[in-house]
Amino acid sequence: MKNITDSFFPCLGYGLPAVSFGFNTDILATNPINLSVVFGVLVFFGKGVLSDLLDNRKQRILKTIRNSEELREGAIEQLEKARARLRKVETEADRFRVNGYSEIEREKLNLINSISTTLEQLENYKNETIRFEQQRAINQVRQRVLQQALQGALGTLNSSLNSELHLRTISVNIGIFGAMEEKNN
């Protein structure tokens, strides 16, 4: 049976003698001239590609360094601006704190004065209400006394008034009313 490597690598010495060009992988058997030629070709053609790759890499590294320096400078500027804003805000906060305390004291005094005024007004309303209630009680007592006096007078009049006196009083009142009528006409 034929080995698969014989068809791909006929120079390996299995089967027929080698007639084609190929690489000898046995390091001890390789020709130093072949190696130097291969090495020379690699250096000649690879040097340009390798130097281009290294130059591109160098340019990318330098660009990255420049960008990071610019970013660093921008970050430093932002940090300084933030510090300045922080100092400004702290100053504002201190000012608000001081003004706030004085404003609180002012508001407290205003509130005390307002409550004092309200209490005085309530005291005045209370006194007016008491006077009003006293006056009303006095008026009620007067009305009761007057009613009782009137009832007493009516009782006295009814008991002492007889029919003759009653007729005389009516005729006197009619006469007064008639005289008033004549004056008006």
TrEMBL record:
<feature type="coiled-coil region">
    <location>
        <begin position="65"/>
        <end position="135"/>
    </location>
</feature>
<dbReference type="GO" id="GO:0015986">
    <property type="term" value="P:proton motive force-driven ATP synthesis"/>
</dbReference>
<comment type="function">
    <text>F(1)F(0) ATP synthase produces ATP from ADP in the presence of a proton or sodium gradient. F-type ATPases consist of two structural domains, F(1) containing the extramembraneous catalytic core and F(0) containing the membrane proton channel, linked together by a central stalk and a peripheral stalk. During catalysis, ATP synthesis in the catalytic domain of F(1) is coupled via a rotary mechanism of the central stalk subunits to proton translocation.</text>
</comment>
<dbReference type="GO" id="GO:0015078">
    <property type="term" value="F:proton transmembrane transporter activity"/>
</dbReference>
<keyword id="KW-0406">Ion transport</keyword>
<keyword id="KW-0066">ATP synthesis</keyword>
<dbReference type="GO" id="GO:0045259">
    <property type="term" value="C:proton-transporting ATP synthase complex"/>
</dbReference>
<keyword id="KW-1133">Transmembrane helix</keyword>
<comment type="similarity">
    <text>Belongs to the ATPase B chain family.</text>
</comment>
<keyword id="KW-0375">Hydrogen ion transport</keyword>
<dbReference type="Pfam" id="PF00430">
    <property type="entry name" value="ATP-synt_B"/>
</dbReference>
<keyword id="KW-0934">Plastid</keyword>
<keyword id="KW-0138">CF(0)</keyword>
<keyword id="KW-0175">Coiled coil</keyword>
<keyword id="KW-0472">Membrane</keyword>
<feature type="transmembrane region" description="Helical">
    <location>
        <begin position="33"/>
        <end position="54"/>
    </location>
</feature>
<protein>
    <submittedName>
        <fullName>ATP synthase CF0 B subunit</fullName>
    </submittedName>
</protein>
<keyword id="KW-0813">Transport</keyword>
<dbReference type="InterPro" id="IPR002146">
    <property type="entry name" value="ATP_synth_b/b'su_bac/chlpt"/>
</dbReference>
<keyword id="KW-0812">Transmembrane</keyword>
